[in-house]
Amino acid sequence: MDLAINPFSSGTRLRDMIRAIRACKTAAEERAVVRRECAAIRAAISEGDQDYRHRNMAKLMFIHMLGYPTHFGQMECLKLIAAAGFPEKRIGYLGLMLLLDERQEYWLLLNVGRDLNHSNQFIVGLALCALGNICSAEMARDLAPEVERLLQNRDPNTKKKAALCSIRIVRKVPDLAENFMSAAAALLKEKHHGVLISAVQLCMELCKASHEALEYLRKLVGKNCLEGLVRILRDVSNSSYAPEYDIGGITDPFLHIRVLKLMRILGQGDADCSEYINDILAQVVSTKTESNKNAGNAILYECVETIMGIEATSGLRHKGVRDIQGDIPWCMLFADDVVLIEESRSGVSQKLELWRQTLEAKGFRLSRSKTEYMKCDFSAMGYEDGDVSLDGQVVPKKDTFRYLGSMLQKDGDIDEDVSHRIKAGWLKWRQAAGVLCDPRVPHKLKGKFYRTAIRPAMLYGAECWPTKRRHVQQLCVAEMRMLRWICGHTRRDQVRNDDIRERVGVAPIEEKLMQHRLRWFGHIQRRPEEAPVHIGIIRRPENVKRGRGRPTLTWTEAVKRDLKEWNIDKELAVDRKRYVALNMLMKAIAVDTQAVQRHRATILECVKDADVSIRKRALELVYLLVNDTNVKPLTKELVDYLEVSDQDFKEDLTAKICSIVEKFSLDKLWYLDQMFRVLSLAGNYVKDDVWHALIVLMSNASELQGYSIRSLYKALQASGEQESLVRVAIWCIGEYGEMLVNNLSMLDMEEPITVTESDAVDAVEIALQRYSADVTTRAMCLVSLLKLSSRFPPTSERIKEIVAQNKGNTVLELQQRSIEFSSIIQRHQSIKSSLLERMPALDEANYLVKRAAAASTQAAVSSVNSAPAVTSGGPLKLPNGVAKPPPAPLADLLDLGSDDAPVTTSAPTTSPNDFLQDLLGIGGAPSTSTDILMDLLSIGSSPVQNGPPTSNFSLPGIEIKPPPVTPQVVDLLDGLSSSTSLPDENAAYPTITAFQSATLRITFSFKKQPGKPQETTINASFTNLATTALTDFVFQAAVPKFIQLRLDPASSSTLPASGNVSVTQSLSVTNNQHGQKPLAMRIRMSYKVNGEDRLEQGQISNFPSGL
């Protein structure tokens, strides 16, 4: 009789199910296997099968890790936990921690509480492990006494797990910290290293959660606590060799580091504790400085961190700063692919057999189907017959290897690897082609995506390539095709490669290839001389024979070529300690600036380092070192380096230089000189507010206006592609053109230049007709030409022709302005001189106030935008229309049923289109920057915008509006102005408490505008009832379909402790069914307490009637 065995019954083993899933070739086949297996498990659960319950739970955990739903098996975890045997409890607790979380508390606390009191220490350990992973605040309150009792258990493993579980309890309920203070201090007297490291970690968590616990460990046990820490540190440092704790010849460096961190917390801001710690820190710094041991350097690094964090003596601090310069060992990690290298086939066979025997002795099996060999004919030894065999089986010979994602050829060439990498880059490109080819996405954003996602795929493994010219050419051609498509161009458009790269902000791939190769060369140089990679690459073997023809280019020769081109000494690669030193100096500067000032020259040299991470860190440090006495030499060095720095670093460097010049400018002339040079070298990276401030200063410095226009004109002739330079120069030519032509207001150090009226118009015309000029620059050129028509009457006809060329411009605003300006030049001669006279000096104080207000508004918007979006299923619209799949809908989470209409969000963003609207006074309600730019260009008109704004940033669910302003709307031709205001009247509605918990209270107050009963303005007030401040606070709300909701930015994202200050936020609600349906709302609040994320939500049902 034939028996048919069901391959998907509950009796099948876990390994059989895994093998069946791995054998699937498509996702559909995998889903079918999982669906049949889940059906069999459900049948076993309904039948009450106990024999295979543990096996079914193991299967469910594997299915859960694959991402399939397994909620139907959660109750099986409870049944396994309730079993008497340890194996069943172990699999039950493992499933509990994997399939459930702290928000699902229907499982019984009785089982866990009973296991915490079990006589078997291993079962107690299981319960503590589960409690430490998924316990909630309520469970922590209920089981805290049991865990506190277990801290005094005799078994070290139980103490260790109880201490780790206590950390979770303290994080969930900081109020319980005082219950664990004495027990934690007592654990510091233990001898077991596991208990000690857990106790130290618990003490650190207590100090972070409660100020009372920190003072308790400092004062109440004070000297005893510190004595215990010092004793632990000395005992571990002076202990004999212990193989279970030894790492690199140092006993338990992890315990060293944890104790030092706790010392830093106790000594921070406390002179008495710091004085007691100084001696042991000096001893550790002196004894743990073995530069060739990673563990010793880790302890040294933590010692320096502690020295900088406590009230250490100046001598100890200087010693810490000096000892930062120690060598840092670098460890290399390898993947699981293994390569065996030998000079003969017999040698490879012997190594392979030894490798097989070693693996099989440890329970591993060497894959015979994946094992291959390749022969490289580089050796001077003769040809050897025979094959490479593995356990009697011949290993296949290949001409090409794929090793760690790279293609290795037997002749040492890289043709196939380069082609393979280019194909990988195009694969990434095709996956994102919809975004990269979208004209609405900014070029800089596309370039950033290319640098982040596509170019790394093309250069994977390129650090090991001995590239020839043809390889570099292949990569460059592929890259330029991608970048041209990003900009919407082809080679037929005849746009220079440099212009394309400048527009997207991408450095040539050849430079990146060299950087990768040099970085890898540095890693090899820092390896010990006996390392195989050092022997095989840096030292050339002596038995390599010379082949016929031109010798093959080696990797070492390629590196030498790169070093020569970059003018780098190869010994510099060994000096890899710079970043760690800079990182520590960043912390030391807050404590002792003079100690860091001594290293100023070295830090400045690090700004020019080939490593981008070192450059950025050094630049931040230089910025902190600048003061009134050294600002000139430091700025000169930075500006000089700006000329030769690569494009990826120019943005950061330019921002820092501009900030330094604005903050420490000694006089206006020096400020102008530095800004003009920055605009000439990196004008494309200068932010708008920087050149706005420059224009404001020039308008107020009448004695320097002539010098400024002449300097800018000369810079424009030399660097006409720097966008910010072009804008500032064009504005100055329009305002002070007669000073340029007549050499007015000459300074003693100046030499006169010869510029005619026609030359000035030529400069503006060239800027207007530049192919790369954006809409903003062209608009400024039109304004400048209009003003020059008044200042240079002989050029009026020519200017009229230039302006008339833009009457057919596809940009509506430029077309409209061209028509208006042509009319002024041709028909309104009588008013032209008064209309286009020089602008009065701009109010510098008013500009600074507006600039600060705009910056604060942008910061508030950024904090709201960083919060999770409230959506109901619509696509998430990013700036310039880039769409991506939406996150989990809040409306679904809050269970609003069918009332799931999306509520749009509108937030101000900074983009070229918004800047043009501000420049020419178009769009909706002008922002603060609108007034500034309208003042700069003496334009006040605000024509009606036809169609939607050109740039919109929306997040479904919340509408964010800028602070209300009431700018005057001035027509350019008739000078009329008007302003409007809306009445505001408070309605008599009582204030309600919308939400209250142990941590947070929310109150709502209401007001309505007359004549609009369906609209309500809600002023929400958030009060922190806890003793710890709430940070990163985000408030979200969801309403039914018939209600529209708009949220303004909150006044702050931090709620002070104990309700000292309340945070407010305004909500605008429109009830489209006013009088028929009442107001309804669900809310959710997310915040952090001591760095830990918290989430609360609720429903508001007590709104006053009439809303």
Automatic annotation (TrEMBL):
Biased segments, Low complexity type: 890-912
Bilayer topology: Peripheral membrane protein
Pfam families per record: Adaptin_N, Alpha_adaptinC2
Chief location of this protein within or outside the cell: membrane
Coiled coil stretches, renumbered: none
Compartment list: Cytoplasmic vesicle, Clathrin-coated vesicle membrane; Golgi apparatus
Superkingdom in the source lineage: Eukaryota
Alphabetical GO biological process terms: intracellular protein transport; vesicle-mediated transport
Keywords: Golgi apparatus, Membrane, Protein transport, Transport
Region (Disordered): 866-913
Domain GAE stretches: 987-1104
PROSITE patterns in alphabetical order: GAE
GO cellular component annotations of the record: clathrin-coated vesicle membrane; Golgi apparatus; membrane coat
Listed SUPFAM superfamilies: ARM repeat, Clathrin adaptor appendage domain
PANTHER family with a match to the protein in the record: ADAPTIN, ALPHA/GAMMA/EPSILON
Name of the protein in question: AP-1 complex subunit gamma-2
Upper taxonomic lineage: Eukaryota, Viridiplantae, Streptophyta, Embryophyta, Tracheophyta
